Amino acid sequence: EFRRVLFRSLCSLNPTLSNQADKTFFKLSVGTEAPFALSKISAQMAKNITPRKEDYSKWYLDVIAAGQLADYAPVKGCMVIRPTGYAIWEAMQSRLDRMFKETGHVNASFPLLIPKHFMEREAEHVEGFSPECAVVTHGGGKELEEPLMIRPTSETVIGHMYSQWIQSYRDLPVLINQWCNVMRWEMRTRLFLRTSEFLWQEGHTAHETADEAQEETLRMLEIYRIFQEEYLAIPVITGLKSEAEKFPGALATYSIEAMMQDGKALQSGTSHNLGQNFAKAFEIDYLDRNNNRKFVWTTSWGVSTRMIGGLIMTHSDDDGLIIPPKIAPIQVVIVPIFNNDQERVQTFEFAEKISNSLNEKMDKLQIKIDTRDNLRPSDKFFHWIQQGVPVRVEVGPRDVKKQSAMVVRRDVREKSAVPLENISEHIVELLERIQDNLFQRALDYRQTNTRTATSYEEFKEIIADEGGFIFAHWDGSKEIEAKIKQETKATIRCLPLENRSETGKCMVTGKPSEQEALFAIAY
């Protein structure tokens, strides 16, 4: 870096040389190693991203901007998902959609607009969503006879349709999912994590018995856990929500909770056992096997583009985005490096040879060759670093002669020269190691920042000084839950399905407690 700065300073004495400084420096450097060095320098000088330790919230938004994931829409609280961000969502959607269909679910589409009286038919539901609803009062230049609500979620309209479709036990179960957008008029918004309009999937099922509905609720929660851990490399804790935190109108709500790099919790997905509340409100009944009329048992479950926010905050660093290979829109980028047209042809042909070799080794591997001529090698490297591509392959004229390439992994920034004959096996194995490393790194961080509190004073000290996850006994009362939230800003994230402890005493009241609850300050 010192030599480069000195060279530019000397060139500044001559305008002609100054304009060619970087290009000349590259030509005077040794082979293709100079661009590799510049790559490292550029990455370390990510001046467009605020360091995490300096301002975590600003860092998060800077990573989104640098990675070209999303931007602010003209309507306050809404966002525009840019092609890179949408490609990540498409990868998530594609994998989850296959997992849903493997368990017997099918896709459908329901209306965006919901009659107001539908929302009012389930009292707890309307009370829970009323402050967040956007209402349409005019259409076609006239005031509507009945206001229409833009869906915050679709239980009501889907419940109405199920009442038309379900007549007999032979029609059950109904296992439907839809991919759509919803609107919740949020006051405080943040890209991906909480916006007024967002993309998601919402599954809605109807069953003969309570046991079948409960089984479905937990089955979908497990699918979310598998997806988060195996594909997003995000370790999560599954558990039951408290009464105060459950979905409006639900019998029980279960969630997956992840820890972000600032120690805060992110609710990454929910699965609701709705019991017969919506069935009774919308008269979803059927003739059972004994020819008696019964109400169905329903569930709903969903995840959203909030997962992209979780992905960013779990894995990314001060240089930008890091994406796990299994969900990355581009898993390998090959960057040819050349000085002239002859070298351009040679390096491009070699890049194609590497790409073809990888495709033969691993089907459906997403590979991109960077063919741009208008950027320096260091700028290309830095672009792909900030895009979070798991593996970068650098190919220069010297590499063509040696029939090898420089392979760089995004997560730990290690690089190694790999012969062409071994490069396919090396990269495929490397992608697996990166996936495993990202999960283990996140799990290690969560374990390091998870503590147990036996008294309320200890609990408050941990929240104030260290944060993270805290396991503590709670007596089950809404009053104590509200007190803890008011005094510490920490909430009960869930009652873990994997019970960590025997019965104990509430840290606040000393009353009996059946199990520890998971507490954290959450997004």
Strand order of the largest sheet: 3-7-8-14-11-10-9-22-25-21-20
User: Helix count, per DSSP?
Assistant: 18
- How much helix is in the residues? 40-55%
Q: Could you say which overall geometry the principal axes of the C-alpha atoms support? A: globular
Account of the protein in words:
- The chain is built from 18 helices and 25 strands.
- Helix content is 41%, strand content 25%.
- An eleven-stranded mixed beta sheet has the order 3-7-8-14-11-10-9-22-25-21-20, with helices on both faces.
- The chain is an alpha+beta fold and 523 residues long.
- It is globular and about 80 Å long.
Structure keywords:
523 residues, five-stranded mixed β-sheet, 25 strands, 41% helix
Set down the secondary structure blueprint.
Layout: H1 2-11, H2 15-19, H3 21-28, H4 33-44, H5 56-66, E1 70-72, E2 79-81, H6 83-102, E3 106-107, E4 113-115, H7 116-119, H8 123-129, E5 134-139, E6 142-150, H9 155-165, E7 174-183, E8 197-207, H10 210-231, E9 236-240, E10 252-259, E11 265-275, H11 277-281, E12 285-287, E13 293-295, E14 297-304, H12 306-315, E15 332-336, H13 341-361, E16 367-369, H14 377-387, E17 391-395, H15 397-402, E18 404-409, E19 415-419, H16 420-448, E20 450-452, H17 456-465, E21 469-473, H18 478-488, E22 491-496, E23 504-505, E24 512-513, E25 516-520
Parallel strand pairs: 3-7, 15-16, 15-17, 20-21
Antiparallel strand pairs: 1-2, 4-6, 5-6, 7-8, 8-14, 9-10, 9-22, 10-11, 11-14, 12-13, 17-18, 18-19, 21-25, 22-25, 23-24
